Amino acid sequence: MKTPLILKVATRAQSGRSASRRLRRTDRIPAILYGKHSDPEKLSVEVPEFTRLLKAVAGRALLIELDREGSPERALSFLQEIQRDPITDRFLHVDLHEVKPEEKFEIRVPVRVTGESTGVKNQSGVLEIATHALRVRCLPKDLPEMIEVDVTPLNVGETIKVGELKPVPGVVFLDDKGQPVVACVEPVAEIVQEVPVAEAAVEGAEVAPVEGEAAAAVPAGDAKAALAGDAKAGVPATPAAGAKPGAPVAGAKPGAPAAAAKPGAPAAGPRPGAPAAGARPGAPAAGARPGAPAKK
Fold first, then answer.
1. 31, 94 in Cβ contact below 8 A?
2. Is the domain of 121 the same as that of 157?
3. Scanning 6, 172, 175, 260, which has its CA 20 to 30 A from the CA of 19?
């Protein structure tokens, strides 16, 4: 067993949220030490002291000796859990698990990949780490800092599982033997989605309406009136779709004159040469001086 790290801690009598808040205001972190053979013990540790410890651990599985004030005996433990504030990232609480030098215990040990995979180097593969930490059981003296996994012979499509790991003396792997640890997979092909280009105008499509939407649908009554007006003006009517050439309009008598029109009668309107309504014959126009020539 390597020389464990030393952490200076102090006992605390009070517990609860209010007591923990007051403790954090003094730049200390509330902690607790528990184990199989002893009752939980409430502790506290200074923030700079605990920060120094984390830098020394550096993500490894290491044992820690607790130097408690007023107690000559040091407790052997490891970091079980660290609680942080999700916003400020301040330390909220620390859980320490006590172990005995002569007794096996369970702990999670991080995985470290070594070497360069053949699939990554020669086959353009991608290395994926499926398991970042493994559960093991061992004595404190046999605790490895990390589980090293050599990926040099790994080709594309191959996986290293827990049952294929190199044995570590005094260490028993507790995870399922078929659980994947590291795999070399093919690179994911880039998916390019084609955007359809707007097609040209289809032959026979409707023409856009004229400005002001003057080409809106005309009611049936207005259509008949328009046809009647064209007939009076001498404009030949356009035959309807499917109508036979020379067929008379539905409802019209062959050769019949227009309704309410007398043969030889002039068109409705003022008669030629008729004076305006209310004007006296020979009277000059309003506002004109007698004998004065009209302005051009």
1. yes
2. yes
3. 6
Predicted model pTM: 0.61
Tens digit of each residue's pLDDT (9 = 90 or more) over 98-155: 999 999 999 999 999 999 999 999 988 999 999 999 999 999 999 999 999 999 999 9
Q: Are 130 and 185 in contact (CB under 8 A)?
A: no
- Give the separation between CA 174 and CA 7, rounded to whole angstroms: 29
Out of 185, 212, 247, a domain closes at: 185
Please give the pLDDT value at position 60. 93
Nearest to 79 by CA among 107, 55, 49: 107
For 138-150, the pLDDT digits (tens) are 999 999 999 999 9
| One domain, residues 96 and 60 | yes
- HSE-CB for 133 with a 13 A CA cutoff: 10
Q: What's the number of domains the chain is made of?
A: 2
Four-point Cα dihedral 199, 202, 205, 207, nearest 10: 60
Report if residue 82 sits inside a domain: yes
Which CATH number does the domain housing residue 127 bear?
Answer: 2.170.120.20
Domain span at residue 146 reads 106-185
Distances in Å between the Cα of 149 and the Cα atoms of 166, 169, 186, 265 are 8, 15, 20, 115
